[in-house]
Specification:
Layout lengths: L1 H14 L1 E3 H4 E6 L11 E2 L5 H4 L4 E3 L1 E2 L2 E7 L5 E6 L2 E2 L14 H5 L10 H6 L12 E8 L4 E9 L5 H8 L3 H4 L13 E12 L2 E17 L3 E11 L8 H14 L8 E2 L4 H15 L7 H4 L5 H11 L3 H15 L5 H31 L4 H38 L2
Parallel strand pairs: 2-6, 13-14
Antiparallel strand pairs: 1-4, 2-3, 5-8, 6-7, 9-10, 10-11, 11-12, 12-13
InterPro entries: Acyl_CoA_acyltransferase (IPR016181), GNAT_dom (IPR000182), HAT1_C (IPR048776), Hat1_N (IPR019467), Hat1_N_sf (IPR037113), Hist_AcTrfase_B-typ_cat-su (IPR017380), Hist_AcTrfase_HAT1_C (IPR013523)
Pfam family, one: Acetyltransf_1
GO molecular function: histone acetyltransferase activity; histone binding
């Protein structure tokens, strides 16, 4: 009977473990009707940075965590609802996971826990004016939706308080994200808004943003590094990421003191976006034309990409490989073979020093049979690894070429 009781308790406990990703509901609220409109809801991509690697919450039935933001000012509402909760007296001393403190410590002070209070402040969004300097305006969806991009600094009046609310999104949508030291005046912020009208009033809704840190570069230059970029889920698939990154490029390309533009630990999605824009832009340069691409990667490409587009050598090489693949007939065995060999030679460079060290180690061995075995294993495994690396790289390049073809 005791074993059966333990089993029942265990089953009850397991039934009260829910996914934190599924339990959290975000909304960017433009009007009161959005509060009850499920179409305005979106989920986090991840929650391990708040709830741990298992991304789970224990101790609640029908748990719902509401994180609502007014679309312009980012006034915040944080609510928790459930139909039942584990208590120590019912579950032999077991307590439900703490939720409120884990999330509230990430939010800017002053958020609302009463939905009526939150709703009463929504009307203030009508008077919102974006911070900073307008950099670019454009339209999508056949001109039916309008967007604006602004650039801010830490000295922009009122912006840092706004940024404290804005950066809370990164915990749920960017892996390994952390809040930045926004007091450092080397930071630059690029924000993208949707501009729309309600009853003749011009309104704004935050759609995404990027942060850039301007590093010092000897002797009197700067090297901007893109740190974070996020387009919020309701605004994805409109090409806003490309517009935002392209605006950052335009902002820095014209500055003589900028050496090149770098990226901090780019995700796969961001790298594809970067490849697409850089390939599109480099494809217009003389040194990246088909006749030059056929002759292989050249110093002229590195120099022109850096001088005109602030692209560093490593990224210029990657763009060269993308554009050369575009002009390579993969059904022509000799053309395709030359292309693969060119890319594999580049992929193999980081391993050359390691192979040389391994060779010196094998030469010190007295056992000739062991020397041969190590040589065979090393050569065979390296060829297999190199082929896998190449296939992965070509797959990435093909995705970029598909997007280029859609222009």
């Amino acid at each position: 009977m005791e074993t059966a009781g333990i089993s029942m308790l265990k089953n009850s406990v397991n039934s009260l473990v829910v996914s934190s990703n599924d339990s959290i509901e975000f909304k960017l609220v433009r009007q009161l009707a959005d509060i009850s409109d499920d179409r305005c809801s979106f989920k986090p991509v991840m929650s391990h940075q708040v709830f741990g690697d298992r991304e789970s919450i224990f101790g609640y039935q029908d748990l719902k965590i509401q994180l609502y933001y007014s679309a312009a000012r980012l006034t915040t509402y944080f609510g928790i609802t459930y139909t039942d909760k584990v208590t120590p007296d019912k579950f032999e001393g077991i307590e439900a996971d703490e939720i409120f403190d884990k999330i509230s410590e990430k939010l800017q002070p002053g958020f609302y826990t009463n939905l009526d209070d939150f709703c009463s402040h929504l009307e203030k969004d009508v008077n919102f004016v974006p911070f900073g300097e307008l950099q670019h305006s454009f339209a999508t969806d056949d001109g039916n939706r309008s967007w604006e991009i602004y650039m801010c600094e830490v000295t922009t009046p009122g912006f840092l308080t706004y940024h404290e609310r804005l950066q809370t999104f990164v915990l749920w949508f960017i892996d390994a994200a952390s809040f930045i030291d926004s007091d450092d005046d080397h930071w630059r912020f690029f924000l993208i808004y949707e501009k729309y009208y309600v009853d003749g009033n011009m309104c704004y809704a935050i759609a995404g943003y990027a942060t850039v840190y301007e590093y010092y570069a000897y002797p009197d230059n700067i090297r901007p590094r893109i740190s974070q970029m996020l387009v919020l889920p309701p605004f994805q698939r409109f090409g806003l990421g490309a517009q935002l990154l392209d605006n950052i490029y335009r902002h820095y390309i014209k500055q003589l003191r900028v050496t090149d533009i770098t990226v901090e630990d780019p995700s796969d999605d961001f790298q594809r976006l970067r490849d697409f824009l850089d390939a599109r832009n480099c494809g217009k340069l003389p040194s990246f034309q088909p006749r030059m691409l056929e002759e292989g990667f050249q110093d002229e490409m590195v120099a022109e990409a850096k001088a005109k587009l602030k692209i560093n050598k490593k990224q210029a090489r990657r763009v060269y490989e993308i554009l050369r693949l575009q002009m390579t007939d993969i059904h022509n065995s000799e053309q395709y073979r030359r292309y693969r060999l060119d890319v594999k030679n580049r992929l193999n460079v980081p391993y050359q020093k390691e192979q040389q060290e391994l060779k010196r180690y094998k030469e010190r061995l007295k056992d000739a049979t062991l020397q041969a075995a190590l040589s065979f294993a090393d050569s065979s495994q390296r060829l297999e690894s190199l082929e896998r690396e190449y296939r992965e790289v070509e797959g990435q390049y093909q995705q970029v070429l598909q997007r280029l073809a859609s222009l």
